[in-house]
Amino acid sequence: MPVHTAYNGNARGILLVMLYIAAAVSPLILASVYGYPYGHIVYELGRSFALLGFMILVLQVFLAARIKWIEQPYGFDILIRFHRNMGIFALPLILAHPLLLAAGSGNRGLLIGSAVSLGVWLGRATLAVLIVSIVLSVYQRSLGMTFERWRLVHDILSPLIIVGAFVHSFMIGSDLNFAVMQGIWVVAAGAAVAVFVYHRIIRPRILREHAYRVSEVVPEAPGVWTVKLAPVAGEPLFDYLPGQFQFITFLRNRGLPEEEHHWTISSSPADKDYVSSTIKALGDFTSTMGETRAGDRAVVHGGFGRFSYVLHPEERDLVFIAGGIGITPLMSMIRHMRDMQDTREVLLIHANRDESGIVFSRELAGIESGGYPSLRAVHVLGSPPAGWKGETGFVDREKILRLCGGNLEGKVFYVCGPPGLIAAVLDALKALGVEDYRIRLEIFSFLD
With 50 as the cut, is the pLDDT of residue 8 above it? Predict the structure, then answer.
C-alpha cells in the first residue's frame, strides 16, 4: 500500500540525527571562527555551554510538536523520551554557564551581586524558570500533578524560557556581536516560537474545524467501549498504519470533561469509513466513555507510532503478547491482515485477570476460522472461573516456549500491555535467548 512507503526509510532517520547535531553545534563552530576569544579556558567553556544549551532548548520545540516528518522514523514514544532527556541534559549546561563565567573572569558578582545589568537579572530569572520546568517534568507524578495541569504549566514556561534566553543573550552575549550569529539566533528563536504557536494554537483550531463525529459506541466488556469516529461528509479519513495511535479530544458538552488523550487505534486502515479506539475505564476521564453518544464531535490527530507489522514485511512468523486492553494495537494489525488476506503465521497470547476482561473473543474466533491470517488465539487468565479449560496463571517463560511449539527460531514478538506484563515478558524472552531486534514494544505512557 503506498501509504506505507513514507515510514520505511532509515535514511531519513540518519539525516535527522545529523541535522540535529549540526543545528546544535553550529553556534559553537561559528563562535570559534568569528567570535572574540577571551583566552581563559574556563570562561570560554562557559560561553560554549550557553550556546549549546540555547540551541538544545530551541530544538526541544520541534521534537514535541508532533511533526510527522520528524516523528515517523523513530516513533513518537522514542521522540518524546529523547525530548525529555535532552531537556534534562540542557539544564546542567545552562547551570554551568554563569558558574564558569564567574570562575573564568573572577567576577563573583555575576552569581550573587545585586548591582548587575538588566540582562544578567533576566538570565537569572530565565534559569530559575528552566529549573522549575525541569523539576516539574521529572517529578510530575511524585508532586501529584495531573498530566493536563503539568502540560498547561509546561506550555506557559517553555516559551518564556526561550524568549528569556534569547533576549538575555542579545543584551549581553558577546558572541552575538556579529551578523552571522545574530541571524542564527533570530531564525532559531523565531522558528521555535512559530512551531510552538502552530502546534498549540493554530493546528488545534484547524483540527477542531474539521472535527470527526462519533458514529457508534460499542460496549466490549465491563468498563470497555469501542468508539468509532468518522470524518464529516466529503472529507477523507486520515492515513494510518495498523497498530498506530491517535490523539482525541472529545467535544461532548453535557458537563463532560474536554481533555486530549492518546489512544491506540483498534480498527483496520482498510476500512475507510471510520477509525476506532477501544478505551478502558482506567481513571476519572476514561470512566466517562460510556456517556459518549453517536453524534458527539471529536478532534482527532493521527496516526503516530511505529508499532506496526507493515513496517517489517519480511517478518512472517509473529507472536503477539498482550495484557488486558493492550490487545488494541494487535487487534488493529490482525484485522488488517484479515482485510488484506495475509496468510502469515500469528500466535496471539492475551492475558487477563478474569474472563470479563477478554475483548474481541468472538471476532478473533471468526478470524481464526477464516484463515487470514493463520491465527491462533490463546487466552490466559490469572483468576479463571470454574470449568475454565484454557491457560491460567502468568505469561512466563515456560508458557511462551510451549505455546510457540518449543521453537522460537525466526519468530518476532510484539508485546503490549501494562508495565508489569511487559517487564515479565521481556525477562522471559531474554532468558529464552530472543535477541532485541526480534522484540517490538508498545508502551502506554510517553514519560515513564
Answer: no
Classified by CATH at the fold level, domain 311-442 comes out as Rossmann fold (3.40.50)
CA 111 – CA 109 distance, rounded (Å): 5
Residue identified by cell 474466533 is 365
Domain spans, the chain = 2-207, 212-304, 311-442
Q: What are 340's three cell numbers?
A: 488484506
- Judge whether 212-304 and 311-442 match in fold: no
Beta bridge partners of 273: none
Q: Please state which architecture CATH assigns to domain 2-207.
A: Up-down Bundle (1.20)
Edge-to-edge strand order for the sheet containing 275-280?
Answer: 260-264, 245-251, 297-304, 212-221, 224-230, 275-280
% the chain with pLDDT above 90: 82
Give Cα separations from 25 to 31, 164, 354 (angstroms). 10, 21, 54
Peptide bond before residue 183 is cis, with ω within 30 degrees of 0: no
Examine the pLDDT at 118 and tell me if it is beyond 60: yes
CATH homologous superfamily for the domain 212-304: Translation factors (2.40.30.10)
Q: What pTM, to 2 d.p., does this model score? A: 0.90
* CB distance 373 to 346 below 8 Å: yes
Provide the grid cell at 423.
517487564
| Cβ 324 vs Cβ 224: under 8 Å | no
- CA pair distance 375, 309, nearest whole angstrom: 15
Q: What pLDDT is stored for residue 176 in this prediction?
A: 83
d(CA 399, CA 428): 10
Distance CA(279)–CA(325), nearest Å, equals: 8
CA distance 333 to 348: 11
**Does the N-terminal peptide bond of residue 384 adopt cis geometry, omega within 30 degrees of 0?**
no
Distance CA 5, CA 31 (A): 41
Residue 133 to residue 179: CA distance in whole angstroms: 32
Q: CA-to-CA distance for 74 and 87, rounded, in angstroms?
A: 18
Between 317 and 32, the higher pLDDT residue: 317
Check if the beta carbon of residue 251 is closer than 8 Å to that of residue 298: yes
Is 53 in contact with 90 (CB distance < 8 Å)?
yes
Read off the pLDDT band of 446 (50, 70, 90).
low
Residues 265, 277 contacting (CB under 8 angstroms): yes
| Residues 362-375 pLDDT 10s | 999 999 999 999 99
Q: Are 278 and 345 in contact (CB under 8 A)?
A: no
Q: How far apart are CA 21 and CA 351, in angstroms?
A: 43
Strands 374-381 and 391-392 come out as parallel
